[in-house]
Amino acid sequence: MIIFFIRNREKIPIETIKDELKVKVKKNVVIDSNILTKEEHSLLEKIRKNTSELNLNNVTRTKAYFDVYQKHPEIHWAFLGHMVSRNGGWNMTDLKGDLLTRLLTKKERNDFFTFLERGNWLIFQDAYPQFLLYSESIKRKKPLFYLLPYLNISTFMETIWNYFWRKSDSYILTIALIVNEQNYLEKRVIQNPIYQKGVLNTLEFKLQDVLSFNHILFPFRKRSLAGQTLHQFQSLHERILLGKRLYAVLFQKKELVNHFVHWATVHRHTGSRKDYWPHIFNNVNEGNPGIPYQLRLNACKLRWGARKIYSPDLTSVWKNVHHQDAEKGDWFSDLQITEYLSELNEIQINGEIEYEYCKTLERLELAALAKKVITIFD
User: Fold this and answer.
1) In 3-state terms, what secondary structure has residue 13?
2) What is the maximum alpha-carbon separation in the chain?
3) Euclidean distance between CA atoms 72 and 79, whole angstroms
4) Residues 6+ apart with CB under 8 A from 40
5) What is the Cα gyration radius of the chain?
6) C-beta atoms surrounding 23 within 10 Å
């Protein structure tokens, strides 16, 4: 009886997915667009066109993710992607705001923006077509995920979407998308020699890591913040684990999910940090050019008579970028990557971040006052 039970037990998700991926790896399927029907070609072209139209800048991408989530709330990653993309926009506008303009040269700020923008653009042009194909599959009441490779999307995600179609497992889909997007970025951005030299290996980037400026913030209610901090940006493993923790912060408590979604619904994304803390940040520069920086914050409150910190709207300070086509190639090669699909060991993820974020702002203010980050550590 025991042997019978073991042989007939239902496979856990990771086992099923791994078995299906093994078959795909062995087959070594060749992508031949000539075998597609005229209707399939038309659908793929429509998906490419819609994706391109919304991949203009961080603001359009961020809104598009939220629109997907509102239409398909079972795709949790769409909301996670929306909230993380908001942070990408805030990091971009920081490069034109009060603090980092005093700490980085114009070239360094432009290099940082190019790095952030390329990553933001790449993820969207990989993730968004998947959502459009899922939506079309629902409309036609049949899975169309065999078309994903024709959109240069990993065979890993083709397997995951087919599994999701059968099992409706939002957790597996979300973690798989996290794994996919971070692996997709690894060679195209993180390991790219241009960004390694111009951004990732610069003293400023390393100091920002020491300053804990890699906060991912999730606003909710009136002025509350939750989130996580990443200290090893260049580590693929750490970025994937961060994604899993961020997902837990957003979705582990239903009442909090509702607060996050309500906040996102009420606050349109502009790229300015005024979106979440208008008591500290303003998208209008209240300062006068040439005047030395004066400390304005004390325990995340403005000092008496102090001007708000300038945090501009994204479209007012950065122009849309024309990108080169994404590099071809499927990142998936190792079945061990499926181990990331398992549940986090931690029962509860602590999303408290306000105190740490406030301390970061104070450190950056001190750095801006001194005009040299390194003086903080002297």
Assistant:
1) helix
2) 83
3) 10
4) 147
5) 22
6) 10
How far is it, in rounded angstroms, from Cα 70 to Cα 52?
Answer: 21
Residue 16 amino acid letter: T
The whole-angstrom separation of Cα 338 and Cα 240 is: 12
Element (DSSP H or E) covering residue 220: strand 215-220
Q: ∠340-345-349 over CA atoms, to 5°? A: 105
Query: Beta-carbon neighbour count of residue 37 at 10 Å?
Result: 8
CA distances from 172 to 164, 169, 249 (A): 8, 6, 16
Token pair for residue 211?
Answer: 């300053």
What is the C-alpha to C-alpha distance for residues 202 and 66, in angstroms, rounded to an integer? Answer: 34
For residues 216 and 88, is the Cβ–Cβ distance under 8 A?
no
Residues in the chain: 378
Residue whose pair of structure tokens reads 């790219």 in the numeric block = 192
Stated pTM of the model: 0.92
**What is the Cα–Cα distance from 37 to 274, expressed in whole angstroms?**
49
Q: For residue 324, give the 3-state DSSP assignment.
A: coil
pLDDT of the chain along its 378 residues, tens only? 444 434 445 678 889 999 999 888 777 666 777 889 999 999 999 999 999 999 999 999 999 999 999 999 999 999 999 999 999 999 999 999 999 888 888 998 999 999 999 999 999 999 999 999 999 999 999 999 999 999 999 999 999 999 999 999 999 999 999 999 999 999 899 988 888 887 877 766 666 655 556 899 999 998 899 999 987 788 999 999 999 999 999 999 888 999 999 999 999 999 999 999 999 999 999 877 767 788 999 989 999 999 999 999 999 999 999 999 999 999 999 999 999 998 866 556 778 999 999 998 998 898 888 875 433 333
